[in-house]
Amino acid sequence: MGVSNENNPTMIPANDQEMGYRKFGMETRNNRRALSVINQNFVGANNLYPCVVNKRGLSEANGICNKNHPIPVARKFAAQIASSQQHYHEETKKPKLAAENFSVWEDVPIIDVEEHEAAKDQPVPMSLEQTETTLSHDNMTLQMEIEMEDIFEETGIDIDSDDAKNPLAVVDYVEDLYAYYSKMEVCSRISPDYMAQQFDVNERMRSILIDWLIEVHHKFDLREETLFLTVNLIDRFLEKQNVVRKKLQLVGLVATLLACKYEEVSLPVVDDLVFISDKAYTRKEVLEMEKSMLNTLQFNMSVPTPYVFMKRFLKAAKSDRKLDLVSFFLIELCLVEYEMLKFPPSFIAAASIYTAQCTLYGVKQWSKTCELHSKYSEDQLLECSRLIVGFHQKAATAKLTGVHRKYNTSKFGYAAKCEPADFLLEQTQ
């Protein structure tokens, strides 16, 4: 028996059977060699890829793209393969390729069907490209304009962005806090005509008491929120409890004491309050009134006063120190006036800031951001603002001048010397 050697195809087999196997193997090897040099026989052999063939046609028909070389597969076997694949060709609508009639067009490049179908959707007419690009650009421009209008006209400015890293600003909860304050100010609203139930005190006495307490607050150098809570405690107590005239000052002293205990770090002692009252009351009377007031108010000290809204609205108005001082000067004038109880605390705060802007700048400055955070428009604030301008006009000449004297000092920037915004009153005529 001879030893086969693919590298030496001229070796002769030992017998006829082996000769038949060897002959078939030699034909196969000759076929492989023909495949290795197939591209060299095409026209344009200098090119690296002279033509592109249909890969699916080659694999399905088991044919070879060369008309100059014999086909090693029998015609009968090729016909069977083509018949078995007929249904597949009908579904895919691909041209049937038979091994016996497959040929190459040497002067026309053959395109790969799969690659051609993949690239068929890519080219777009230039006119359509320009139209789509123009429409897309116009739509984007219109959308950007709408978004910019929404930002400036509806949402306003984000006033908390600068405090994002300040844990004391509680930026994540501040909107929820003020939504809660807005609900609570309605629940804790003081009746604007509660004085009708009092038989021994009146509105004038209340104004005198609060004007005096503003001076006491200034002498003790207490926090701003302490004053607003003091006034709130007085009104809520008088709304529920009748008080004789000689005890009214005691009510004011005890309200100051409770507010200091709630807001201050260092607070005046009971003896200090007895002293400033010119010893009109004893220590025992102060403590008894304290118990009575807490029981009447059911120990509810957490109520939204105008102060909490002032801080938020001033931030929305991008205020400076001068606007802060004038705003607080005007709102403290409102504390003295009994008629201002008809307005909610947030409304008085917004109106005071709006009036202060008109006082300092001579023009209306109520921006969309202020309106967004206060929930009040300029038209809604005008009525209250005109009342505040009237209080400002008579602040220096009225009988109760405690607020004017307080803000007519260098500590408060002489805010009381600002000219009132009289042009707001002229618009009513």
TrEMBL record:
<comment type="subunit">
    <text>Interacts with the CDC2 and CDK2 protein kinases to form a serine/threonine kinase holoenzyme complex. The cyclin subunit imparts substrate specificity to the complex.</text>
</comment>
<dbReference type="Pfam" id="PF02984">
    <property type="entry name" value="Cyclin_C"/>
</dbReference>
<dbReference type="Pfam" id="PF00134">
    <property type="entry name" value="Cyclin_N"/>
</dbReference>
<dbReference type="InterPro" id="IPR006671">
    <property type="entry name" value="Cyclin_N"/>
</dbReference>
<dbReference type="InterPro" id="IPR004367">
    <property type="entry name" value="Cyclin_C-dom"/>
</dbReference>
<dbReference type="InterPro" id="IPR039361">
    <property type="entry name" value="Cyclin"/>
</dbReference>
<dbReference type="InterPro" id="IPR048258">
    <property type="entry name" value="Cyclins_cyclin-box"/>
</dbReference>
<feature type="domain" description="Cyclin-like">
    <location>
        <begin position="308"/>
        <end position="390"/>
    </location>
</feature>
<dbReference type="InterPro" id="IPR013763">
    <property type="entry name" value="Cyclin-like_dom"/>
</dbReference>
<comment type="function">
    <text>Essential for the control of the cell cycle at the G2/M (mitosis) transition. G2/M cyclins accumulate steadily during G2 and are abruptly destroyed at mitosis.</text>
</comment>
<feature type="domain" description="Cyclin C-terminal">
    <location>
        <begin position="304"/>
        <end position="421"/>
    </location>
</feature>
<feature type="domain" description="Cyclin-like">
    <location>
        <begin position="211"/>
        <end position="295"/>
    </location>
</feature>
<dbReference type="InterPro" id="IPR036915">
    <property type="entry name" value="Cyclin-like_sf"/>
</dbReference>
<keyword id="KW-0132">Cell division</keyword>
<dbReference type="GO" id="GO:0051301">
    <property type="term" value="P:cell division"/>
</dbReference>
<keyword id="KW-0195">Cyclin</keyword>
<dbReference type="GO" id="GO:0016538">
    <property type="term" value="F:cyclin-dependent protein serine/threonine kinase regulator activity"/>
</dbReference>
<dbReference type="GO" id="GO:0044772">
    <property type="term" value="P:mitotic cell cycle phase transition"/>
</dbReference>
<dbReference type="InterPro" id="IPR046965">
    <property type="entry name" value="Cyclin_A/B-like"/>
</dbReference>
<dbReference type="GO" id="GO:0010332">
    <property type="term" value="P:response to gamma radiation"/>
</dbReference>
<comment type="similarity">
    <text>Belongs to the cyclin family. Cyclin AB subfamily.</text>
</comment>
<keyword id="KW-0131">Cell cycle</keyword>
<protein>
    <submittedName>
        <fullName>Uncharacterized protein</fullName>
    </submittedName>
</protein>
